[in-house]
C-alpha cells in the first residue's frame, strides 16, 4: 500500500474463502461501491499491475451477508495462486491524478516450524504465562531462558524472560 492509501479490511483466507466466496465484514460496506437498491455490484481492484473485476453481492433476504463470489472471484484465486492462510488486504489507493482505486495485497503468512504466525502468537502468550509461573517458583534454569530467547523471536516472551 502506498502512503496515500486507506486500509479497508484484511483477512486470513479460509477454505471457504478459497473454494467458494470471500466473506466481507458488514462494517466496511460503506467503503465499497453502493448496491443502489440491487444485490450485486461488479467493480475492479488492482492487484500488482493488473486490474481484476470482482463480483460483490449481498443476500436478497434476511441477513445481507456481503461476499466476493462467483467466477470472477474464483478466477482471481486460481490465477494468483491464493492459499488457505494467506492474508488478503483490501485498501483504497490514490492515483497520481488524484483519482481513487481499490487495491489488493496478498501476503503469505510467516510460518515457523510449520506453525502460522497467528497461532505462534497464541502459543507465545500461553508460554509466557507458563514461564511467568515457573519463574515465580524458580523452576527455569538460566540456560533454558537463554535458549528460549535465542530461538523465539517474540517480544512478549522476551519481556517475560527478562
Overall description:
The protein is an alpha+beta fold. It folds into two domains: 6-107, At1g16640 B3 domain, CATH 2.40.330; 111-161. The chain is built from five helices and nine strands; from the N terminus they run βαββββαββββααα. The protein has helices at 15-19, 70-79, 117-136, 142-151, 155-161; strands at 6-12, 21-23, 40-47, 50-57, 67-69, 87-94, 100-107, 111-112, 115-116. The strands form two sheets. Strands 1-6-7-3-4-5-2 form a seven-stranded mixed beta sheet. A two-stranded antiparallel ribbon has the order 8-9. Strand 3 (40-47) and strand 4 form a beta hairpin. The protein is elongated. The two termini are 36 Å apart. InterPro entries: B3_DNA-bd, DNA-bd_pseudobarrel_sf. GO terms for molecular function: DNA binding.
Structural class: alpha+beta
Described by its quaternary structure, the protein is: single chain
- In CATH, what is the class of the largest domain? Mainly Beta
Report how far the terminal alpha carbons are from each other.
Answer: 36 Å
Number of domains: 2
CATH superfamily of the largest domain: DNA-binding pseudobarrel domain
Largest sheet: 7 strands, mixed
Spatial arrangement of strands, main beta sheet: 1-6-7-3-4-5-2
Q: Summarize the amount of helix as a percent range.
A: 25-40%
Write the H/E string, N to C.
Answer: EHEEEEHEEEEHHH
Tell me, what's the shape?
elongated
Organism: Gossypium armourianum
Protein name: TF-B3 domain-containing protein
GO molecular function, one term: DNA binding
Subcellular location: Nucleus
Amino acid at each position: 500500500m502506498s502512503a496515500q492509501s486507506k486500509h479497508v479490511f484484511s483477512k486470513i483466507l479460509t477454505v471457504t474463502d478459497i473454494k467458494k466466496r470471500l466473506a466481507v465484514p458488514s462494517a466496511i460496506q460503506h467503503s465499497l461501491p453502493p448496491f443502489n437498491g440491487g444485490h450485486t455490484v461488479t467493480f475492479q481492484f488492482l492487484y500488482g499491475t493488473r486490474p481484476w473485476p470482482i463480483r460483490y453481492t449481498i443476500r436478497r433476504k434476511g441477513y445481507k451477508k456481503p461476499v466476493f463470489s462467483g467466477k470472477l472471484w474464483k478466477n482471481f484465486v486460481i490465477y494468483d495462486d491464493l492459499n488457505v492462510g494467506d492474508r488478503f488486504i483490501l485498501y483504497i489507493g490514490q492515483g497520481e491524478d488524484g483519482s481513487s482505486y481499490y487495491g489488493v495485497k496478498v501476503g503469505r503468512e510467516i510460518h515457523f516450524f510449520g506453525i502460522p504466525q497467528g497461532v505462534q502468537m497464541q502459543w507465545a502468550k500461553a508460554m509466557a504465562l507458563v514461564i511467568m509461573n515457573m519463574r515465580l517458583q524458580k523452576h527455569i534454569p538460566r540456560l533454558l531462558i537463554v535458549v528460549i530467547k535465542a530461538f523465539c523471536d517474540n517480544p512478549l516472551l522476551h519481556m517475560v524472560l527478562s
